[in-house]
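User: Predict the complex with FE2/S2 (inorganic) cluster.
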Amino acid sequence: MAKGLRKGLTSYGDAGFSLFLRKAFIKAMGYSDDALERPIVGITNTYSDFNPCHGNVPALIEAAKRGVMLAGAMPMVFPTISIHESFAHPTSMYLRNLMAMDTEEMLRAQPMDAAIVIGGCDKTLPAQIMAAASVDLPTVVLPVGPMVVGHHKGEVLGACTDCRRLWAAHRAGTMDEQEIAAVNARLAPSVGTCMVMGTASTMAAVIEAMGLALPMSATIPAPHAERIRLAEASGALAARMAASGAPRPSDLITARSLRNAAVVLQAIGGSTNGVIHLAAIAGRLGLPFDLGMLDALGREVPVLVDLKPSGAHYMEHFHHAGGVPRLLARLGDLIDLDTPTVSGASLREIAASAEDVPGQDVIRPRGNPIKPQGSMAVLHGNLAPGGAIIKQAAASPALTQHTGRAVVFENVEDMARRIDDPALDVAADDVLVLRNTGPRGAPGMPEAGYLPIPLKLARAGVKDMVRVSDARMSGTAFGTIVLHITPEAAVGGPLALVETGDAIRLDLAGRRIDLLIDEAELARRAAALAARPQATAPARGYARLFDAAVLQADLGCDFDFLVPPPRD
Ligand code: FES
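Assistant: Here is the predicted structure with FE2/S2 (inorganic) cluster placed in the model:
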């Protein structure tokens, strides 16, 4: 098989001419024949002025290139789409598959023997790994790393759990304009990803546990010199993989490593978004990410990592406590330690060499967990025949068995218009329902599932209510929040049938979310819904593609035409 510059020649009907032409052009950059004969490591560049989380990407690229060259291969850097959570309209999830397609096609089209994908802001690593899995090119994942923490009046602050908490305090009138402005400048004090156990940290940790990145890659703070050395080591590793052609993503993304990912997701108090991304990554190789398995693990695997929003600390503290290797050691037989990793070492070898930090209390022993059960649970019931997720680690225990009156919002705009209306008929024990916020409905399944507490209740001191939606929620958020209701309302799921005043029962212990109305009435409402005119599909472009092809949350919100048939 062709290697290096000879791979994937542009089609002119004459392979010799294609290579001649390719060399002629690349020599314009000053490369020597010696350089051009080497194995090639492609390195994605997701630096963007619109993506502060990736602000250290240029430095990581320089170090990764150094590592590649020290190991005798040729680094070639190329740009792909970059997505930041706060700079993606209507939502970053809407663009994840576009980034995955861009990355996949660039990995395929350009001649490279291995790749380093550098990402971190929530949707970027999932998109890059979906792409690498589809191409099945030897790939090293290099996360950009978490931000360091901020400080305000002696309090440690972190993006963006504290963004939400302090904004809620401002909404409730307990923090004035001047102070909220001061806080705004301190919540994100460095480049890097959000430093709580949000989606970025969650994905970085599960990716490290799946063996797709080098040890400690999830937790080294973005500005630290150690991360630059990690980039150099990732470059050297990718050069060796370019020469050997192994391991490929399909060697590492397996049923065993996906189960390990689910264990770690539960043990770190991980983001619910991780479920969607893992389903999408697994789906690219025809593998399931089984929600039943995730729920069963949630009953068995305790939350051991004490990070916000479920706990007290931040990513740099997780790092200084020993990071993912120490967590693997603490998980012991809950995890399959004999799975391979990109480095060639097994997880068992990585866990055995984990640093033992005396007195650290961030990564707890199994006998003294943060929560006795895992981060999240999977619900079913007549409201969610295809499943729903609740982050039980961040829920109020008093609300996890609760029946309340539904207060329904038709979509995000309706919620924004009415939620703070003093005339809104709502009480603290009601259940807030938001629909048409799923993969197709919004579109792009925005992180709107963290419905704000209605202003008049917030000012009366209400901190949490049961909230139900087909949306997602930021991994940095907290509350008794049922998410990812499947099928979503926009495709006719039962959530579309709820009316204000109906009773909804959340039964976390029984793993159910139910609408308490009789079958005949449900059937009458379903018939009336079916008779209503359908929404018009977008006329053109990516919006049209998205509308036609996006799958539901349980299948990772990938596009149907990107997913191969299930493996036997
Ligand atoms: Fe980029 Fe949070 S906004 S990781």
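The chain has three domains: 39-148+190-352, 150-184, 377-531+540-555.
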